[in-house]
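Internal tracking record. Fields below are filled automatically when a chain is submitted to the structure queue. Please do not edit lines marked as system-generated. If the sequence contains nonstandard residues, flag them in the REMARKS field before resubmitting.
Queue: standard
Priority: normal
Entity type: single polypeptide chain
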Amino acid sequence: MQAALEIAKRGGSVHLVCRNPKTAEEAKTEVEAVATRGAKVLVHILDLSESQAVCRFTRKFVQENDSLNCLVNNAGCMIQTREVSVIGISCPYSLLKACVCSCLLHSS
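SYSTEM-GENERATED OUTPUT FOLLOWS
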């Protein structure tokens, strides 16, 4: 969260990609409170364990944004067992990596 606050303080765009709408809005309010002129704070609701949703989000992000300059993973969870999707992808972090790679490739 500290990175999002610092980026907003400097007038940058912050995309909060969150699973929980309530905590996402709370985070958005906190970031907007320190944002300076020109900063944009946007919330996207996304469950990284849903591969199709990640793909849709990635396509939409690439279409609507010129670039992805920085990614900060603020997921605070401890996973005791490895989860694998129906197509054999380790969830959810492999999906996050795929999303980021796609965004970076399309933003160059």
